[in-house]
Every structure is written in structure tokens, then in C-alpha cells.
Write a structure and sequence with these properties.
This protein is of the alpha+beta class. It is built from 3 helices and 10 strands; from the N terminus they run βββββββαβββαα. The mean pLDDT is 94.
Length: 193
């Protein structure tokens, strides 16, 4: 397949949506849900629901010198399902994504890292939420005590990165940030050599 450039018959800065009004319909310490009265790009009137997050999504792919990573397992209330994920959590807006990543890694695994590389910026479900996420590769690791939050009942699993990537490919890891982070880590490490 030959690489191509994006079509030139559009202006990526032009917003074809018109917002006529907005109302907050629900809010808690983590999210705010609003309903906007809109005109869509084809001229139709309607409503659009938006979930605004009050934190940044933060994910970490820890990697040791033997090529192992760590997954965190927990039962996810929203899915009614047990999930394996990379260490992750919410980053307060007043902290940098890196500061939040360092805290989350320590809390969920007890690990600290001397070397950090941001490998991904992503939007988790951009048709319904404005959530922005960041994934970091954490290397030169030191093991310490972990400090899970009160609402977390976590299991930590050390395994080869290749096995975690295979779990993504087999739909055993379905969390979007985890899947993107593990695949980006694998690609980043291959390019680094």
C-alpha cells in the first residue's frame, strides 16, 4: 500500500457543529454530564450528551531489564467483569501527567522508575467523552511497598511484555488505554532496538 496524504478538500479547524445551549444534568467528584442543544453538520436540530472527566486518564507500562511488565487485576463495577489492565488511574488536572503516572505506579505496584517516556496521548471514547489519556513507559525500576486506594481490591501480576501483548490480541485485555499502551510500548521498543 502506498502512503497517501489526507484529503485536501476540508478544513480541519472548521467546526461544522453549532451549539445553541448547554445544561449540566449530573455531576460528581469525577465526572460531569451535560446535554447540549445542537445543530449537526447536516443542519438537523438535536441534543448531544457529553461526559466531561475531572481528571486525565493515566496509564503506565512498567518494563524491567528482562522484558517483563506488570498488570493490575480488579473487578470493574461498570462492566460486571474482572479485568487485567496496565497500572492506571486518574491524574489531577493541577498535576502534570508524569507526576500522576509516578504516583499511580507507586500506589498500584509499589514500583518507582528512574526513566520515563511518554509513548501515547489518546482520547478514550471521543464520541461521548472529552477524556484525554497519557501512557508512559517506565524503566529502571525499583520495587517498594504498594499503596492501593481504599476503593481498590487489586492483584498485581508480573509477566513478559510479549505475553501481555498476546493477551491484547486475544481479547483478554480489553481496556482501551491498556491495549493502546501495550501495543505502543511494543512498537516503541522495537523501533528503539
Amino acid at each position: 500500500m502506498t502512503p497517501t496524504t489526507p484529503p485536501t478538500d476540508f478544513d480541519p479547524l472548521h467546526n461544522p457543529w453549532q451549539t445553541h445551549g448547554t445544561a449540566v444534568v449530573y455531576e460528581n467528584p469525577w465526572i460531569k454530564v451535560r446535554q447540549d442543544e445542537i445543530t449537526n453538520p447536516k443542519g438537523g436540530a438535536g441534543v448531544y450528551g457529553v461526559v466531561s472527566m475531572k481528571n486525565k486518564a493515566i496509564g503506565i507500562v512498567p518494563l524491567d531489564t528482562e522484558g517483563n511488565t506488570w498488570l493490575v487485576g480488579q473487578y470493574r463495577y461498570t462492566l460486571n467483569e474482572y479485568c487485567w489492565e496496565i497500572p492506571m488511574g486518574g491524574g489531577l488536572l493541577e498535576h502534570t501527567p508524569l507526576e500522576s503516572a509516578q504516583r499511580e505506579l507507586r500506589e498500584e505496584t509499589g514500583l518507582t522508575a528512574a526513566r520515563w517516556t511518554r509513548i501515547a496521548r489518546l482520547h478514550t471514547s471521543n464520541s461521548v467523552t472529552d477524556e484525554e489519556g497519557f501512557v508512559f513507559l517506565a524503566e529502571d525500576l525499583t520495587q517498594g511497598e504498594w499503596e492501593p486506594e481504599e476503593s481498590e481490591d487489586l492483584r498485581v501480576w508480573k509477566l513478559p511484555l510479549a505475553q501481555a501483548v498476546a493477551m491484547v490480541m486475544n481479547d483478554e485485555i480489553t481496556d482501551a488505554i491498556s491495549a493502546a499502551g501495550l501495543l505502543k510500548a511494543e512498537k516503541f521498543l522495537a523501533a528503539r532496538g
